[in-house]
Specification:
Length: 262
């Protein structure tokens, strides 16, 4: 679940680990974006999206949104666990710090400088050279697949990123959809290749662990996709096909693209 297309990276990561898994994708197009909302409002919208997904009796719920994880995870777990394990999404600051810096954390303006992000830095990257980089407009541009707006938002954030950065944490799930464009904007000629750290793969692996399932990437691609739009049955938005993750989820077992709305 997420407000919108930010759930695509985690859903695609689950699909790669278990092509036979049935997926329910619960979004909130009527209420997005969640970022500018108050914590209580984010929690209310996240609970509604989670309840819509829970009606399908899933084995686990992935909260594929940093904002919802920050504000709503306790409420989601209180309502759904232990019947449905709830897996949150945390920026990959710990592995990024272990790999060495200097580190930039690209995140929404609301997350950058928040107590939540500062706590993660204090816990896992206290001795590292860390720069928080707010990225106004980037998540919204990714959501609408607005190519010009994506380029402009990435360029603006890149201007505020120190040139000696070697490691970048993608602190919003939407950013993972444009990770290579972020890399291209930040990579300095002649410098070592930048390391980018997202959360999708780790979250997908954790979801499988929580339900006692093993990765089976060679399994038959029989898994289906059900889409929920603010509680209503629907289909993947056409904008999802702008990204490799969306195209993967839209493929049927024979490789045809299915279940997409314009």
């Amino acid at each position: 679940m997420d407000s919108g297309t930010g759930l695509l990276p985690a859903a695609a990561a689950v699909r790669r680990l278990r092509p036979d898994a049935d997926l329910v994708l619960s979004t909130d197009p009527d209420g997005l974006p969640w970022g500018p909302r108050t914590p209580d409002d984010v929690t209310a919208h996240a609970l509604e999206a989670a309840r819509a997904a829970a009606a399908h009796a899933p084995e686990a719920l992935i909260v594929a949104c940093n904002t919802a994880t920050v504000h709503a995870l306790p409420a989601l777990r209180a309502e759904l666990e232990p019947a449905i394990p709830v897996i949150g999404t945390v920026p990959a600051i710990k592995p990024a710090a272990a790999a060495g810096g200097p580190i930039a954390i690209w995140a929404t303006p609301a997350t950058t400088g928040s107590p939540y992000q500062r706590d993660l830095i204090d816990r896992f990257a206290r001795d590292a050279d860390v720069t928080g980089v707010p990225c106004p407009g980037l998540a919204d541009a990714v959501e609408t697949a607005d190519e010009a707006a994506i380029d402009a938002a990435i360029a603006a954030a890149a201007r505020h990123t120190p040139r000696d950065i070697r490691t970048v944490v993608l602190g919003c799930t939407h950013y993972e959809l444009v990770a290579e464009r972020i890399r291209a904007a930040l990579q300095q000629p002649g410098a070592p290749a930048l390391a980018l750290y997202g959360s999708a793969d780790a979250v997908a692996a954790q979801a499988l662990r929580r339900i006692g399932a093993e990765p089976a990437p060679a399994a038959a691609p029989t898994g289906g996709v059900q889409m929920i739009l603010s509680g209503r049955p629907g289909a993947l938005p056409a904008t999802a096909l702008a990204y490799a993750e969306g195209r993967l989820l839209a493929q049927s077992a024979d490789g045809a693209v299915v279940g997409v709305r314009g």
